[in-house]
């Protein structure tokens, strides 16, 4: 990772590094992430990118729906999000400051023939210096709750986005219910998420995210609540945004 601006929290890097070898285990520590991608992230992006006019009409609803779309996956980790996007035809660049996770992502990519993803071990702040307005879309999935300065990281992410491009964001809301459900229940009572995975001090409201986005010339288009069922053990969208939310914004021209 090159030196420069950073919002990296060293303890987060260590925690992710210690469990990097488990990243692709769908029944392991990242099970909730594995489930979230097809249930929340992909549907959010499908509707958003289609509405943006970035999806070719002939590809709508097909396996190559994202063909030709350039996507930056911020906080790409071990590649759980980058690979599905590339398999749908997108040209993906994944950026993450955790060296061991980037190694895992590159190694797992070898199982696919002719699937190209550019993984960069660095911060998006550094990446943005030479990649202004390069991408049609940026994913900012579950990044906000793991960085020390979300405004700085979000700013750099938006700088990489083309005017008219879309940014997709998911994270935990900074509410009592966000803490009670996301930390107390999921981590300490049910053990669905590993203990210590989240710090409530780093949670942030979607209103604050929208405020930052407006500062960076982006307009929030949609905020959807999301919910992980303790009984069904799956993700779904909901009208309630007080626990966890998914949002989409456009960089205005």
What does this structure look like?
It is a single chain. The chain is of the alpha/beta class and 253 residues long. Helices cover 34% and strands 23% of the residues. The protein contains eight helices and eight strands, in the order H-H-E-H-E-H-E-H-E-H-E-H-H-E-E-E. The chain has helices spanning 10-18, 31-51, 82-87, 99-109, 124-127, 150-159, 176-189, 206-215, and strands at 70-74, 91-96, 117-121, 135-141, 161-172, 218-228, 235-238, 244-251. Strands 3-2-1-4-5-8-6-7 form an eight-stranded mixed beta sheet. Strand 1 (70-74), helix 3 (82-87) and strand 2 (91-96) form a beta-alpha-beta unit. It is globular, with a radius of gyration of 17 Å. The model has no long low-confidence stretch (mean pLDDT 95).
Brief synopsis:
The protein is α/β, with parallel strands linked by helices and 253 residues long. It contains eight helices and eight strands, in the order ααβαβαβαβαβααβββ.
Primary descriptors:
eight-stranded mixed β-sheet; 253 residues; alpha/beta
Mean pLDDT: 95
The percent of residues in helical segments reads 25-40%
Shape: globular
**Radius of gyration in whole Å, from Cα?**
17 Å
**Based on helices, strands and strand pairing, what is the structural class?**
alpha/beta
Number of helices: 8
- Count of extended strands: 8
Tell me the strand order in the biggest sheet.
3-2-1-4-5-8-6-7
Taking pLDDT < 50 over at least 5 consecutive residues as the criterion, the unreliable ranges are none
Main sheet properties = 8 strands, mixed
Into which percentage range does the β-strand content fall?
15-25%
First CA to last CA: what distance?
32 Å
Instruction: Sketch the topology as an H/E string, one letter per element.
Output: HHEHEHEHEHEHHEEE
